[in-house]
Design a protein that fits this description.
Elements: E1 5-11, H1 17-25, E2 30-35, E3 38-43, H2 46-60, H3 85-91, H4 93-109, H5 115-118, E4 126-129, E5 132-135, H6 138-143, H7 160-181, H8 183-205, H9 214-230, H10 242-254, H11 257-263, H12 268-293
Antiparallel strand pairs: 1-3, 2-3, 4-5
Helix pairs in contact: 4-7, 7-8, 7-9, 8-9, 8-12, 9-12
Length: 294
């Protein structure tokens, strides 16, 4: 495993975008992380770190020329930085819209307690008779024109903690992707990962009651993680330990620890498939961005 060397520490509001282009032009591999309120620039060796520090001094004094002929199909990083909450909402309409939709569905379904409204959003429609729920086939629902069921389980949550955790992480990760790669990209990634994670969970568990944004969450996490590993951007520099914590949580779910602790059944197939599609997405688009920046 490569051991990275710390080359620079600069404030979060410092714009490193052009300097990162300088490093790309110089053929210096690098990554950027966020630690203790600073952007940290890492390179492959201490010798490169010393070279980067010298280049940065020249860059600050205007002694370096930056060539900016990169095609802007994938937006270059603009030194991602925290904004006020109202500004964040204005810059993250897709992220905000998904969260509002989750809140509305939570109110309609009373956080999963109202089964008569819950059935509007499940992958398979069902009828409740006594203490049992009888599910219709997916084919029956699609024949009725209920195509929204392929996506709607991502909006369905069971309990306040389930809703709060999913909303918090989607807000944190979704707006980074929306900032870096645009609204349409985040919307596409959200819809594709929701479809794949819902279908995967259906294949794994057959007709059953499942829902939540967590399949999509693992997709946006995987996207940021792998993209940052291949083509580092300040916007995708997650705080230290976030990826490890989420992967550990995934393993605890897979091995049944979370269920044993009383958190209910976990949609493991949705989590794993979401993570895989996000990692694939991050890898593909990071390679495209790096190729265009070369």
């Amino acid at each position: 495993m490569m051991k990275w060397s710390n080359a620079l520490r600069v404030p979060l509001d410092s714009n490193l975008a052009q300097f990162l282009q300088v490093l790309a032009q110089q053929g210096i591999g690098h990554r950027v992380t966020e630690e203790s309120g600073e952007q940290v620039l890492w390179v492959a060796s201490e010798a490169q770190a010393e070279q980067v520090r010298a280049l940065y001094q020249q860059f600050q004094t205007g002694q370096l020329t930056v060539y900016t002929s990169v095609e802007p199909t994938l937006r270059q990083d603009r030194a991602y930085q925290p904004l006020g909450f109202v500004q964040q909402l204005r810059h993250s309409p897709v992220t905000a819209a998904v969260l509002v939709a989750c809140l509305v569905v939570a109110l309609i379904t009373q956080l999963g307690d109202n089964l008569e409204t819950v059935r509007w959003f499940t992958f398979n429609d069902f009828n409740v008779q006594g203490d049992y729920a009888y599910f219709f086939t997916l084919e029956h629902s699609l024949e009725q024109g209920q195509w929204w069921r392929l996506w709607s389980p991502m909006l369905l949550h069971f309990g306040f903690l389930h809703l709060a955790m999913n909303m918090m992480w989607y807000w944190e990760l979704g707006r980074r992707i929306e900032y870096q790669q645009g609204r349409l990209f985040l919307l596409s990634l959200t819809l594709v990962s929701a479809l794949i994670s819902n279908v995967s969970q259906f294949i794994f568990s057959d007709a059953s009651l499942f829902g939540g944004l967590s399949g999509v969450l693992y997709a946006v996490l995987g996207h940021c993680w792998i993209y940052q590993r291949i083509y580092p951007q300040a916007s995708y520099a997650l705080p230290t330990g976030v990826v490890a914590m989420m992967l550990i949580w995934l393993l605890l779910c897979l091995f049944g620890v979370v269920t044993a602790l009383g958190f209910g059944q976990i949609a493991n197939a949705a989590h794993v498939s979401g993570l895989l599609i996000g990692c694939l997405s991050g890898g593909v688009f990071a390679l495209i961005a790096r190729h265009r920046a070369a």
